[in-house]
Design brief:
With 208 residues, the protein is an alpha+beta fold. 29% of the residues lie in helices and 29% in strands. The chain has a single domain, classed as Aminopeptidase (3-Layer(aba) Sandwich), CATH 3.40.630.30. The protein has a seven-stranded mixed beta sheet, with helices on both faces. The longest helix has 15 residues. The protein is globular.
């Protein structure tokens, strides 16, 4: 209980990292992604070595950002983004097929936060910082993806509350008929399998 109280009282600093500054966050963010994405609804059976390679691209991607939440020197959460035109093909192509120009869309990738630090408004702060970054680059539209899982999935926790109301409060809505396919190994799977993710979008970033 004493450790929990110390954690609750510890301030969290949000730091916006761009360019080569991102390199310092790659290793701790890789570990964080592996840990947090094991939870529902992603159930990701990942490895830190793969994540480091996957995340390294942000340090060299024009317009990319990592918003890190630090408790002292420890990274307890992070949210990332980059212009959709620079994203991997799996994410970019569905937008193009739907007639949407990736050049006009800023893509929010992961947003991960250790469970002990949730409920403190950090999720909203992540969106605020990424939206501000996208606006500064001249973007008016942002998008992100959320994995689609059946409501009767055997690993769905009892009483699970989706984040849909939170995203809608931020001004985002599901893009009708627009989904993205991406491969990763679920917990208990011997190999990666394709998952479908719903695209959520918001226009009007320029008005805050």
């Amino acid at each position: 209980m004493e450790k929990k109280n110390r954690q609750e009282n510890m301030p969290v600093d949000l730091v916006t990292l761009t360019g080569k500054e991102i390199e310092r966050s790659i290793a701790p963010l890789a570990d964080l992604r592996v840990r947090v994405f094991r939870e529902w609804p992603y159930l990701y059976d990942g490895s830190a070595s793969y994540e480091k390679t996957y995340l390294a691209r942000y340090a060299n991607a024009p317009g990319a950002v990592v918003v890190g939440a630090f408790a002292g020197e420890r990274l307890v959460g992070a949210a990332t983004g980059q212009p959709l035109a620079g994203e991997v093909e799996d994410f970019r192509m569905p937008f193009e097929r739907a007639g949407l120009d990736p050049a006009g869309i800023y893509y929010f990738a992961e947003s991960v936060l250790d469970s002990g630090w949730r409920g403190r408004g950090i999720g909203h702060a992540f969106f605020d910082a990424r939206e501000a970054h996208a606006r500064a680059l001249g973007f008016d539209t942002a998008a992100f993806c959320a994995v689609i899982r059946p409501t009767n999935h055997p690993l769905r926790p009892a009483g699970y509350t989706p984040l849909d109301p939170f995203w809608r409060k931020r001004g985002y809505a599901p893009a009708n008929g627009l989904t993205v396919g991406f491969d990763w190994p679920d917990l208990g799977e011997a190999a990666a399998s394709r998952k479908q993710l719903q695209v959520w979008m918001r226009s009007g970033l320029s008005v805050g």
